[in-house]
């Protein structure tokens, strides 16, 4: 099995992917552009391992060993010998394409290049490389150590072998996979949540029902663990505005057109839990 993993981006997603992979026995190189970002990322991983130890889900020795398998670097060249590289940077196509252009020149011919994106077509990312058949989408869910799903996305040219390698990796680190066979913007999960969120925001914006009642309807009526507006606050109004905007731009499907209220909330800085105010106060 592939044992050397590189993760590009030490934010919440990247550090979460590094954490579960190291715990599963992978040697992980975690790369970001600043030492501060790396220190934050590795600190977050250590804290998360401590929580698992305190709950009896890991022994102190296992946590220490896993943490020891993660090395951090600001040097992109350090990922050159990785079997799998997972990019987990900001959801901006130009940023991702720039990284994949560089990775294409750096990594071994047999390496798998994966993007942890929730809405950007994999084909567009793969197209800037000379090996589009080796590029695949691995859309993990936040927080990675707790969420079981990984959405595997086949780009227009992704090979069966690449998809199989990505699936084996995701399953080894404890995830259940779904496969997206056609590279549509937003894949399966982001399209579903975006359609639900857009409609929920429109109902709230039009005064049809309160945020609380819309969320209760989804929880008790459909068995959702969390309502769409509370989910938006948790994920970030800005993140979901960006995701729905991406899908709308690609598909021109009106059901994904972001409501004006979402834009105004982002303009005002009311972006959910991280700002203390979204559809609810925190």
From TrEMBL:
Alphabetical list of InterPro entries matching this protein: 3-OHacyl-CoA_DH, 3-OHacyl-CoA_DH_CS, 3-OHacyl-CoA_DH_NAD-bd, 3HC_DH_C, 6-PGluconate_DH-like_C_sf, 6PGD_dom2, NAD(P)-bd_dom_sf
Gene3D superfamilies, sorted: N-(1-d-carboxylethyl)-l-norvaline Dehydrogenase, domain 2, NAD(P)-binding Rossmann-like Domain
Pathway where this protein functions: Lipid metabolism; butanoate metabolism
Superkingdom of source: Bacteria
3-hydroxyacyl-CoA dehydrogenase NAD binding domain ranges (all copies): 4-183
SUPFAM superfamilies: 6-phosphogluconate dehydrogenase C-terminal domain-like (SSF48179), NAD(P)-binding Rossmann-fold domains (SSF51735)
Record's keyword annotation contains Oxidoreductase: yes
UniProt keyword annotations, A-Z: Oxidoreductase
Annotated 3-hydroxyacyl-CoA dehydrogenase C-terminal domain residues: 186-282
Family statement drawn from the similarity comment of this UniProt entry: Belongs to the 3-hydroxyacyl-CoA dehydrogenase family.
UniProt cross-references to NCBIfam families, sorted A to Z: PRK07819.1
Stated name of the protein: 3-hydroxyacyl-CoA dehydrogenase family protein
Species assigned in the record: Streptantibioticus parmotrematis
